[in-house]
């Protein structure tokens, strides 16, 4: 009797020859394996994951077999073709790379019974993460975000700790952005810097980096905002600095040329410029727009380059 | 109502940076962040405050806190200038003191105009007594500038808030007339 158990996870796709006269029990990923008619052992048939460093030599051990056992290895159901050495129950792959990734299974000779499954994932230990902090909810608190410049190819977690005046602060991880955390200001106008330490951790190693900043350099939210405009056309940038107005008309753009417009803001008294906004594309029209005739029913008027004016764009982005 | 916050930077050279390099290590080290000396040895009031307390400050109290802070700071920076051996630094600090003095005058003037009691200008700032040991002096100098930075940062927000409140008050009064 062949029992095939399929499941979305790797744990369950296996086939077992089961003797009719014996019962079996399975519970969550564990299947009681009838090794022989006299003893039972519980073996986890969830393929275990093995993380290894790219470029290294990797040893995979087939279950808990003796050193003189003889096994056959397969990767993703096919023969292993990479450079390797086999020593008893061990498979040693040389200088693994991304193509070495796969599900390795070992079958004991001569009965052909599968003894183990290893999900090999090659990757790299993390390098120092890049950390930035800013406040867009001043004076309530600030948030920090981080990223790894170089991918690790394997799951990597991050630990964050924030210190202020030699005291640790409570850090709340963002629910949506997994590489972001939020911190409340314990007090305002303190004379101590904040120190944020982010550590990247995975199975192959860890790396951390820290940044320090004063409250005054974190950025502010205020009603007195200076707005700056940047026009880009071909390779030229035309920065236009504005006052606290909320609309602006550009009068010297070339007709027919596409412009890219972005906006940034800064508190008038104190603080730094915000990030540039999402870019808006606009092309000043070549000919005067034709007046809308009452007989036209559709919204789209052919022959008219109805593009939003700069004013519309600005009030939209503000 | 123009209360100018004197920038810490004069001719693109920040007085604080110059003074720190004058003090030398460890004060000039970028990451240097020692614990604050306790209030008995450092009489400059801290600008630090809880968000809710700061928001709830009455106009008179807000101004009084600034006035007290700057009168102590003025005295402290004057003392720093006096004890500085480098002439360029000394003149920078004295120039900065004149800015602080102007700021203090504006605050007192505003307080009088609004009918709040303020410290008499001739009273020397209470509690500021310069320490004699040179190592303590350096630490004192470091912390005076630190607190000055915090107060300048805070005052900008104090006065913005005050201005909004007074403007609201003025329009209410105007509406009543």
UniProtKB/TrEMBL annotation, chain A:
<dbReference type="GO" id="GO:0019970">
    <property type="term" value="F:interleukin-11 binding"/>
</dbReference>
<dbReference type="InterPro" id="IPR003961">
    <property type="entry name" value="FN3_dom"/>
</dbReference>
<dbReference type="InterPro" id="IPR036116">
    <property type="entry name" value="FN3_sf"/>
</dbReference>
<dbReference type="InterPro" id="IPR003598">
    <property type="entry name" value="Ig_sub2"/>
</dbReference>
<dbReference type="Pfam" id="PF24031">
    <property type="entry name" value="FN3_IL27B_N"/>
</dbReference>
<keyword id="KW-0393">Immunoglobulin domain</keyword>
<dbReference type="InterPro" id="IPR013783">
    <property type="entry name" value="Ig-like_fold"/>
</dbReference>
<dbReference type="GO" id="GO:0009897">
    <property type="term" value="C:external side of plasma membrane"/>
</dbReference>
<dbReference type="GO" id="GO:0008284">
    <property type="term" value="P:positive regulation of cell population proliferation"/>
</dbReference>
<dbReference type="InterPro" id="IPR007110">
    <property type="entry name" value="Ig-like_dom"/>
</dbReference>
<keyword id="KW-1015">Disulfide bond</keyword>
<dbReference type="GO" id="GO:0004921">
    <property type="term" value="F:interleukin-11 receptor activity"/>
</dbReference>
<keyword id="KW-0325">Glycoprotein</keyword>
<feature type="domain" description="Ig-like">
    <location>
        <begin position="55"/>
        <end position="106"/>
    </location>
</feature>
<keyword id="KW-0677">Repeat</keyword>
<feature type="domain" description="Fibronectin type-III">
    <location>
        <begin position="125"/>
        <end position="223"/>
    </location>
</feature>
<keyword id="KW-0732">Signal</keyword>
<dbReference type="InterPro" id="IPR050379">
    <property type="entry name" value="Type-I_Cytokine_Rcpt"/>
</dbReference>
<protein>
    <submittedName>
        <fullName>Ciliary neurotrophic factor receptor</fullName>
    </submittedName>
</protein>
<dbReference type="InterPro" id="IPR003599">
    <property type="entry name" value="Ig_sub"/>
</dbReference>
<keyword id="KW-0675">Receptor</keyword>
<dbReference type="InterPro" id="IPR056621">
    <property type="entry name" value="FN3_IL27B_N"/>
</dbReference>
From TrEMBL, chain B:
<dbReference type="InterPro" id="IPR009079">
    <property type="entry name" value="4_helix_cytokine-like_core"/>
</dbReference>
<keyword id="KW-0202">Cytokine</keyword>
<comment type="subunit">
    <text>Forms a heteromeric complex with cardiotrophin-like cytokine CRLF1/CLF-1; the CRLF1-CLCF1 complex is a ligand for the ciliary neurotrophic factor receptor/CNTFR. The CRLF1-CLCF1 heterodimer binds SORL1 (via N-terminal ectodomain); within this complex, the interaction is mediated predominantly by the CRLF1 moiety. The tripartite signaling complex formed by CRLF1, CLCF1 and CNTFR also binds SORL1.</text>
</comment>
<dbReference type="GO" id="GO:0005615">
    <property type="term" value="C:extracellular space"/>
</dbReference>
<dbReference type="GO" id="GO:0097696">
    <property type="term" value="P:cell surface receptor signaling pathway via STAT"/>
</dbReference>
<comment type="similarity">
    <text>Belongs to the IL-6 superfamily.</text>
</comment>
<dbReference type="GO" id="GO:0008284">
    <property type="term" value="P:positive regulation of cell population proliferation"/>
</dbReference>
<dbReference type="InterPro" id="IPR010681">
    <property type="entry name" value="PRF/CT"/>
</dbReference>
<keyword id="KW-0964">Secreted</keyword>
<keyword id="KW-0325">Glycoprotein</keyword>
<keyword id="KW-0732">Signal</keyword>
<protein>
    <recommendedName>
        <fullName>Cardiotrophin-like cytokine factor 1</fullName>
    </recommendedName>
</protein>
<dbReference type="GO" id="GO:0005125">
    <property type="term" value="F:cytokine activity"/>
</dbReference>
<comment type="function">
    <text>In complex with CRLF1, forms a heterodimeric neurotropic cytokine that plays a crucial role during neuronal development. Also stimulates B-cells. Binds to and activates the ILST/gp130 receptor.</text>
</comment>
